Amino acid sequence: MQDYFNTDKPHEECGVFGIFAPAGMDVARDIYYGLTALQHRGQESAGMAVTDIAGQKGNVKVVKGMGLVHEVFSEENLDRLKGNTGIGHVRYSTTGGSVAENAQPISMNYIKGSLSLVHNGNIINSAELKERQMNRGQAHYTSSDSEVMSYELISERLKTGSIEEAVKGIMNIIKGGFAVVVMSPRKLVAFRDPLGIKPLVIGERDNTFIIASESTAIKAVGGKPLRDVDPGEILTVTKEGVKSDRTFCGGKQAHCVFEYIYFARPDSVIDGIPVREARYNAGRALALADRVQADIVCGVPDSGLIAAEGYAGASGIRLSFVFHKNSYVGRSFIKPTDEERQTAVHMKLSVLVSAVKGKRIVLIDDSIVRGTTMRQIITMLKEAGAEEVHVRISSPPFLYPCYYGTDVASSGQLIAAEHSNEEVRKEIGADSLEYLRIEDFKTMTGGLSLCTACFSNDYPLKVH
């Protein structure tokens, strides 16, 4: 169940959603629509947990499974998910494997009650924590990061008077990039890693509070985004309202730059930066550093389109739409042969011959990982009659692995890490190849403190 057009891209690990509504309301459909708005962050599994918080311990109901949101949830199981409070999750696996057992939410009962948890990110010290938990008789060797976090929460909760205190306890223990929403019998607790690597936003709708990975999911259910959850902040949502604990706030920040380059939806605003504006600025920066002679500028759908618009605006070269994207070709349920996998891009994209024949083209995309998809696209353009194809990438060369929740695990999978710029150019068949410079990120995101480790090898957290 994989979209082979997108296997040559880095992928976000997942998206989280939480909602706390007044008593008597059912939130399952809100979670469904919120998760649908976050579907781009993970397409392998989806799930939700719902409870009825009415001043007493609620009965947690969970539905989760492999597939897209609309494949996991039906009218029948949504009708069974009664309750005014819930959490939801969409997943793309980077650790733990793509299996049903690792679908979220994680829901556990223990001596003081129950908790359910959804988590986006990677814990870089999970091996150490798993060993400690196995010694306590909790975790097993297949535990995902989300299970590891749940076990730590339960362990801390048994020593403290509230789930908020338990969260503060694990904030001293877990290391990595994470955005988490926990549902206990009477409240939601949301927290974000102190560096702010993973995004998290809170919003409101008619005395209902909503927490999500992106602002667009809050708007999808009729809510108004209020603000980003600050790096290191712990929010507690109860029927009395929202409380903030800033014990872990105020330190160094390192927001994931790939949220702005590729991961997030362009209609989202993350840490005060409109994603569309950041991508447009990246395209402008590419053009201002370029002197190529060309007839048209075009972007690879969908992630290269906004940067192409910015490039065209700054360069004066005409913006042209040269691809037709087949929106009805998604994940393949039939395992393709190697040959079919190599040519799968033809199922997703076709070239408008009249738009490219005889033209010198500047082709904009957000990144190159392995280079296979870009090579196929350039071949298609030249077969359609393009005279030249000059590739411009709205990020620097992807050189190093990410340990905080992106699926590229080793530099050996990255074409730019193994080859020079000229070798990459020849490999993909471009007439020229240039990338965004790291220093251009200041223009792209207005000076926001960023994690650029995948380009610079400057990791904000030491990885053992």
Describe the structure.
The protein is α+β, with helices and mostly antiparallel strands. The protein folds into two domains: 4-253, Glutamine Phosphoribosylpyrophosphate, subunit 1, domain 1 (4-Layer Sandwich); 273-456, Rossmann fold (3-Layer(aba) Sandwich), CATH 3.40.50.2020. The protein has 18 helices and 24 strands. A seven-stranded antiparallel β-sheet has the order 3-2-4-1-10-9-11. Strands 5-6-7-8-12-13 form a six-stranded antiparallel β-sheet. It has a five-stranded parallel β-sheet with strand order 18-17-21-22-23, sandwiched between helices. Helix 10 links the parallel strand 17 (296-299) and strand 18. The chain is elongated, with a radius of gyration of 23 Å. The two termini are 33 Å apart. Residues 1-5 have low confidence and may be disordered.
Overall mean pLDDT stands at 89
Number of helices: 18
CATH topology of the largest domain: Glutamine Phosphoribosylpyrophosphate, subunit 1, domain 1
Top CATH class of the largest domain: Alpha Beta
Instruction: Spell out the CATH superfamily of the largest domain.
Output: Aminohydrolase, N-terminal nucleophile (Ntn) domain
